[in-house]
Amino acid sequence: MTSTFRTLTIPLDGKAFPGGLPSFLVRDDVLCWTRREAGLAGFGEIARFTATGPERFLEADIWWRHLVIEAEITDSVELPGTGPVAFGSFAFSKTSAHESRLVVPEIVVGVRDGQVWLTQLTFDDGDLTEEGALAALDRWLSGGRPAAAADSAGNPDHGEVPARAGGAVVRPLPLAAGATLHTGALSEEAWMAAVEAGVAEIRTGALEKLVLARDVVATVPTGVNAAKVLRELAVRYRECWTYGVDGLVGATPEMLIQVEGRTAQARVLAGTLDRRDAHGEDGIPMDYATRVLAGSEKQRHEHEIAIQSLTTQLAPFSEAMNAHDEPFILELPNVWHLASDVKAELTEVEGHVPTCLALINALHPTAAVCGTPTQVAGALIRKLEHLDRGPYAGPVGWLDAAGNGEWGIALRGAVIEAPDTVRLYAGCGIVDGSQPEAELAETWAKFRPMLEALGIRN
Fold it and tell me: 74: how many CB neighbours lie within 10 A of its CB?
């Protein structure tokens, strides 16, 4: 590229967008990262980087730093996510043929702490102006203002009384006409056999934990409306991070790494309980979750492995670190999780604070999505899953030129493979004591967010 990379960031009137960031999710090709009505939405594309293999994170890091080092940045807002921004999605496996990518959009809308902004990014000559940026946003929004935040959240035509899940009002979704589900790489019986084989390997002492994933394929004859799926997820799963990058869509409850200045944070999950299992129990459902999850030696052991995996890998980059002494119960509309938040103050490594992609290179894959020891678990995954995970369970998120970024693990998601076809993924942590039937049921609980957003009842 011979032209200079230039960006202009201007404030917008937040009162004009009461629905927050989800109100901008009006195009199927939108780039998206949102939680609790905040986040980033990107439109268009002015640059892209792709890579495969074990060096994909570092190669992307080098490309991004070279791109922004001489950028002309005009930024009157100066918050994380302003100025130059790229959205990214990376393959889970270093052996995957799936291309990891960073995508630089033409237009970015951001919402944070009640502030709203607009960034225009370009390599073209000519002045960047507020009027030009607003006109470009209008073009991407088809000349209109942003739509309502979500059809299911604001449309009274559903005609049913709203249910309350995870603290949020959630209305039942209409069913997709004629939608069907098909077996993915393995049948349910073959996948349960893989779980049995994984437990047998764990009992030999070769590894402590293994994460096994499975896929199902949904066919939606009326077509997949990606923007609607994202809006549904953003409203129904407010405590998760809803993401959309190049047909990869989902709402993850797990933060691999969030970097703001010199502070890094992560949210680690391991240990899952389907909320449907609480039906018929006496007492408050949260009491049930606490008793079954926090009181389970299996679940606590799985969680401790996940925490140890992350903190061990993060320690060389940190001058101080703290994590919850006890995991807490994360309540989502479909499941409860054992969760722990980790916070670290980053130290300089070879003269500079590590970038978020450098941290991802060190952290991924964690025990929460692979197992431990990593190399043994990774090899066993390739042997037992019969599946290229592609971007599933890989890092997904965004980064800016100042080194800030948020990268979740692409869970509770799917890849839109054709206008009417979606491949959904879900996985479970396998330890000594895991029961194949219970793990299979857990995958269906984890498929539920995407099935609901697609209008498919299972």
Answer: 13
Q: Is 440 left (phi over 0), alpha (psi -120 to 50) or beta?
A: alpha
Continuous H helices in 36-164: 56-68, 130-140, 151-154
Annotated active-site positions, please? 209, 254
Alpha carbon distance, N-terminus to C-terminus of the chain:
49
For the 6-147+173-454 domain, the top CATH level (class) is alpha beta
Tens digits of residue pLDDT in 393-451:
999 999 999 999 999 999 999 999 999 999 999 999 999 989 999 999 999 999 999 99
Flag whether the pTM goes above 0.85.
Answer: yes
* CB-based contact 198:427 (threshold 8 Å): no
| Cβ neighbours for 280, distance < 8 A, ≥ 6 positions apart | none
395 φ, ψ (degrees, to nearest 5):
-70, 140
Q: Distance between CA atoms of 60 and 55, rounded to whole angstroms?
A: 9
Q: Assign 51 to helix, strand or coil.
A: strand
Q: What angle do CA 25, 246, 268 make, to 5 degrees?
A: 85
The secondary element (H helix, E strand) that includes residue 309 is helix 297-314
Residues composing the chain: 458
Query: Which residue(s) pair with 49 in the sheet?
Result: 102
Q: What is the spatial distance between Cα 277 and Cα 287, in angstroms, rounded to a whole number? A: 13
- Residue labelled with tokens 């609980």: 445
Q: Torsion over CA of 35, 232, 457 and 337, rounded to 10 degrees?
A: 10
| C-alpha distances out from residue 279 to 196, 275, 381, Å | 28, 8, 34
Helix/strand/coil for 68: helix
Q: Say whether pLDDT at 169 is over 60.
A: no
Q: Where do the structural domains in the chain lie, given as residue ranges? A: 6-147+173-454
Residue 358: HSE in the Cβ half-sphere, 13 Å Cα cutoff: 18
